[in-house]
């Protein structure tokens, strides 16, 4: 009996050492303006956030699959679909044939079921996720072992109590201005947003939530606190990313999952560059409609050319147990290390 306990203790010890030495890894798969972010926890479990676009040659599903192979995955434990637009669900069916998916998380019914492509995508989603689906509400925890992920927004409703590090924010909110043009694609505002914590490190992903809806998390009180890494909301479009939002969460590093012709207008770069404590902006693509010198430094851009001949280089973040995190551009190997706050 004693011997058995000792063996168990030894195994637990080895396991603890092993997991403590493993990094959290996040991959941004280039999908020409679609969204696909792959998170691999120190536990080895994985969560994919969105499955990008559908093309006749399953381009994005293949790109996502390639990233799972680079990460050594045999399975995607959790697929989180932030919302049902085609640039977030398009590759799902094709991907599900390439690699098993364990669990499907979402915000509930889409609110654009009157649009035939969305109704069709949703029908396919219901079939695929049967028996493995869970709808999230703000405050829920996502069960990815080895990290702490909390839903901060889902189906338009945000958390109502401040997380650790949050607090009153009235001064920052004084000059917030509402966008008066109605959002043409309202399922954006239903997006699931989440805060991932791993030790001291914090990463925020808000899907495609737009300006008027993201506000509830920072005004009049900042319910999130500050973060280390921020995936710019909505591919870095200026329908999202208000100065009040970005300057409240104060990311040290921003990663923009833009496409060559989607996201990255000058106004968003200005908001990011004026954000207190920001150190760097990284981009999935050169934003071709924005002057080159407004884009970030070329060495921090993963893809420079048009979509037709795009090699789909990844951006990768590796987070060490001590909170130090390194961003690497797969195009040129350029890497930079930052400290968690
Ligand atoms: Zn999108
Ligand atoms: Zn969208």
Structural class comes to: alpha/beta
Write the CATH fold name: Metallo-beta-lactamase, Chain A
Mean pLDDT: 94
**Annotation, overall tally of beta strands:** 19
What is the highest CATH level, the class?
Alpha Beta
Bound molecules: zinc ion
- How many distinct domains? 1
Content of β-strand: 15-25%
User: Can you count the helices?
Assistant: 9
CATH architecture: 4-Layer Sandwich
Shape: globular
The neighbouring-strand order within the major sheet is: 6-5-4-3-2-1-17-18-19
Helix share, percent: 10-25%
At the fourth level of CATH, the homologous superfamily is Ribonuclease Z/Hydroxyacylglutathione hydrolase-like
Order of helices and strands: HEEEHEHHEHEEEEEHEEHEEHEHEEEE
Radius of gyration: 20 Å
The major sheet is characterized as: 9 strands, mixed
Which stretches are poorly predicted, pLDDT < 50 over at least 5 residues?
A: 13-19
CA-to-CA gap between the ends?
Answer: 46 Å
List the SSEs and their pairings:
Elements: H1 2-20, E1 24-28, E2 37-40, E3 46-49, H2 59-70, E4 76-80, H3 86-89, H4 92-98, E5 101-106, H5 116-128, E6 133-135, E7 141-142, E8 148-154, E9 157-158, E10 167-168, H6 170-173, E11 193-198, E12 201-205, H7 211-214, E13 221-222, E14 229-231, H8 243-249, E15 253-256, H9 266-273, E16 280-283, E17 315-319, E18 325-329, E19 335-338
Parallel strand pairs: 3-4, 4-5, 5-6, 12-14, 14-15, 15-16
Antiparallel strand pairs: 1-2, 1-17, 2-3, 7-8, 8-9, 8-11, 10-13, 11-12, 17-18, 18-19
Helix pairs in contact: 2-4
The protein binds zinc ion (2 copies).
The site of one zinc ion (ZN) has 5 residues, from loops.
